[in-house]
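> call design_seq(struct)
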């Protein structure tokens, strides 16, 4: 799992279904011309996110029972963490103030960060064939920042 720089970049995390519900709340109850930030109130560093993903994987598909990891002598998902050079100009922190949508529209996320990560990991594990298609069909599996420019 590649991590930019030292892994200390901070983002606010929001489960995808909560994001969709936030958009629907804005469409249903928002005032025309106003802006609403949809956030999860779940700021985490990239290293914290990786630790949570690794823990969810250990619970749902223990590394000791994962043939691909066992064959390579990998003891845990967390040990797959590798640090890669940071992108030039990469922001250290993105912050979201979602108090307006909470106050004016009564919307808040339903899923906690941990529950959202676990649900996301479950979805990916249940859809491994889709994952293979996406990984193998997307610029030969290259990281996005390394993919060649598309000319139209």
């Amino acid at each position: 799992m590649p991590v930019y720089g030292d892994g200390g970049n901070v983002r606010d995390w929001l489960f995808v279904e909560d994001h969709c519900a936030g958009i629907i709340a804005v469409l249903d109850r928002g005032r025309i011309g106003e802006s609403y930030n949809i956030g999860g109130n779940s700021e985490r560093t990239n290293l914290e996110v990786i630790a949570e993903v690794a823990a969810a994987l250990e619970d749902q598909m223990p590394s000791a029972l994962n043939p691909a990891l066992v064959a390579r002598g990998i003891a845990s998902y967390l040990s797959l963490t590798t640090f890669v050079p940071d992108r030039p100009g990469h922001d250290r922190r993105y912050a979201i103030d979602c108090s307006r949508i909470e106050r004016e529209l009564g919307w808040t996320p339903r899923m906690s960060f941990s529950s959202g990560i676990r649900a996301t990991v479950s979805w990916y594990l249940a859809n491994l064939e889709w994952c293979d298609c996406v990984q193998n069909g997307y610029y030969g599996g290259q990281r996005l920042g390394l993919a060649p420019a598309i000319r139209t």
